[in-house]
Write a structure and sequence with these properties.
about 60% helix, elongated, HLH_DNA-bd_sf, DNA-binding transcription factor activity, RNA polymerase II-specific
Length: about 70
Amino acid sequence: MRVSTKGASKARRDHINHEIKNMRALLPITLEDQERLSYLHSMAVICTYIKKSVLFQGKFSYCSHPLMPLNF
């Protein structure tokens, strides 16, 4: 059975949203702050968190995002 394009698109979106929620749960911020973040802002903060993790390992030279302080 073939899934419609509309159904396949919704399944992809659902999968992406689920993964964003999983990654957002790993951030060192309160649950309240996590729930306030849109998916777009969540991705920005997740990327910043990863970049800063690399920075503190001495492999990245610059990273900044207003929602993720340097002393996370």
